[in-house]
Write a structure and sequence with these properties.
Distance between the termini: 39 Å
Largest sheet: 8 strands, mixed
Order of helices and strands: EHEHHEEHEHEEHEHHHHHHHHHHH
Number of helices: 17
Oligomer: single chain
Bound molecules: nicotinamide-adenine-dinucleotide
Strand content: 5-15%
Strand order of the largest sheet: 3-2-1-4-5-6-7-8
CATH architecture of the largest domain: Orthogonal Bundle
Number of strands: 8
CATH topology of the largest domain: N-(1-d-carboxylethyl)-l-norvaline Dehydrogenase, domain 2
Structural class: alpha/beta
Number of domains: 2
Radius of gyration: 22 Å
Length: about 375
């Protein structure tokens, strides 16, 4: 694979273009808006200079990499590309319109990919003349820094394309994991309870956001607590992802958005970017200095076991292999440990008992235990032998 085209020069597209150029490819970066192309070019130039300042690459390498990039103002420039990665606005109709324009410009062998976070790859492939060469390549933000890439074949994707892309992404110095084309793929699905269960605990007034954040960081070793993280991501974005997964999962109550979060979005309390979210960033945000108690332990147990339940269910439904599930959560969202490995350490029977306790208390579908965990507990199995 020699020439790579990236379409959409926003946060993701620019980063992906830089990663491809750093891997030695000639890259064409195109955007429908010339201003966006210029912004993308400046962003890449700054990023390469920073890498050079830090000594990660030499000044000469930065120049050579930048020289491999061509910033295009016409889509026709993508002719001759072997791999085309789309990273435009997250709208199915816009993306499909673009694919119809791309296909006649490139050869039948060229691979066409989407970086979508939430749209079904199978729907995006539908409408292409050659859907068998279409695939999802989901980078994480920022692409230059984040190691993980989810590779999502559509139902129509030819198997040699999957292997080809897995190898290609590996050669870009990234870690690809293979995911089934289901809502949220691996990371955005399995991470839902980190936010959802934390919100539920706060909604029930069992604990404050600060207390929950403290429990998850100090007892779980998570880098950021759920509320800090939601404020960082943006509550509007986080709520939209939750709503998208919930809707696509046919309103399964496990993914239901929280009224608490919906209200924050209504108020415009998006988090850090708006100065206020669960925390008020006009003031200094300080962690409560109280000691860790049994209440903190309860919060940590409850959130963790719901994450484990989600990971086990993803494995049960073949969303990804156990190794890829654990890798995805450690590399994609920096979890301190793979969730299935964590389940082994807790004991599968103990996980089942904790989830069943929640179910008996609430009598809600949300707290149903994964069939896989139950079967494994009965057979005294572990995930990693
Ligand atoms: N931001 C993230 O954290 C993240 C992470 C993974 C995947 N994604 C996905 O990546 C894609 C891009 O997201 P982003 O955050 O970079 O968005 P962005 O808004 O920063 O950039 C999108 C760019 O696409 C351009 N564009 C819009 N319509 C176009 C068209 N028809 N043709 C060419 N260019 C067009 C816009 O001018 C803009 O520069 C989305 O599908 C998103 O879901 C985003």
């Amino acid at each position: 694979m020699k020439r790579v085209a990236v379409i959409g020069a926003g946060a993701m597209g620019s980063g992906i273009a830089q990663v491809a150029a750093m891997a030695g490819h000639e890259v064409i970066l195109y955007d429908a808006f010339p201003n966006a192309v210029a912004k993308g070019r400046d962003g890449i130039s700054q990023s390469l200079n920073k890498l050079a300042e830090k000594g990660k690459i030499t000044d000469q390498e930065a120049k050579t990499i930048f020289g491999r990039l061509y910033f295009a103002e016409s889509l026709d420039s993508i002719a001759g590309s072997d791999l085309i990665i789309e990273a435009i606005i997250e709208r199915e109709e816009e993306k499909k319109k673009l694919f119809a324009l791309i296909e006649p410009l490139v050869s039948e062998q060229a691979i066409i990919a989407s970086n979508t976070s939430s749209l079904p790859i199978t729907s995006l492939a539908n409408g292409l003349k050659h859907p068998e060469r279409f695939i999802g390549i989901h980078f994480f933000n920022p692409p230059v820094m984040m190691q993980l890439v989810e590779i999502i074949p559509a139902l129509q994707t030819a198997s040699y394309i999957i292997e080809n892309i897995m190898q290609e992404i590996r050669s870009w110095g990234k870690t690809p994991v293979r995911a089934k084309d289901t809502p949220g793929f691996i990371v955005n699905r399995i991470a839902r309870p980190y936010y959802g269960e934390a919100l539920r605990i706060a909604e029930e007034q069992l604990a404050t956001p600060a207390m929950i954040d403290k429990a998850m960081k100090h007892l779980g070793g998570f880098r950021m607590g759920p509320f800090e993280l939601m404020d960082f991501i943006g509550n509007d974005i986080n709520e939209a992802v939750t709503r998208s997964v919930w809707t696509s999962m046919h309103f399964d109550s496990r993914y239901r958005p929280s009224q608490l979060q919906v209200n924050l979005v209504r108020a415009g309390w998006y988090g850090r970017k708006s100065g206020r979210g669960y925390y008020d960033y006009a003031a200094k945000v300080e962690e409560p200095s109280d000691a860790l108690t049994e209440e903190h332990a309860y919060i940590f147990r409850r959130v963790l076991v719901m994450l484990i339940n989600e990971a086990a269910d993803a494995l049960y439904y073949g969303i990804a292999s156990k190794e890829d599930i654990d890798l995805a959560m450690t590399l994609g969202v920096n979890y301190p440990k793979g969730l299935l490995k964590w389940a082994d350490e807790k004991g599968i029977a103990e996980c089942v008992r904790q989830i069943d306790d929640l179910y008996y208390l609430y009598k809600e579908e949300r707290y149903r235990c994964s069939v896989l965990l139950r079967k494994m507990a009965e057979a005294r199995q572990t995930f990693y032998g």
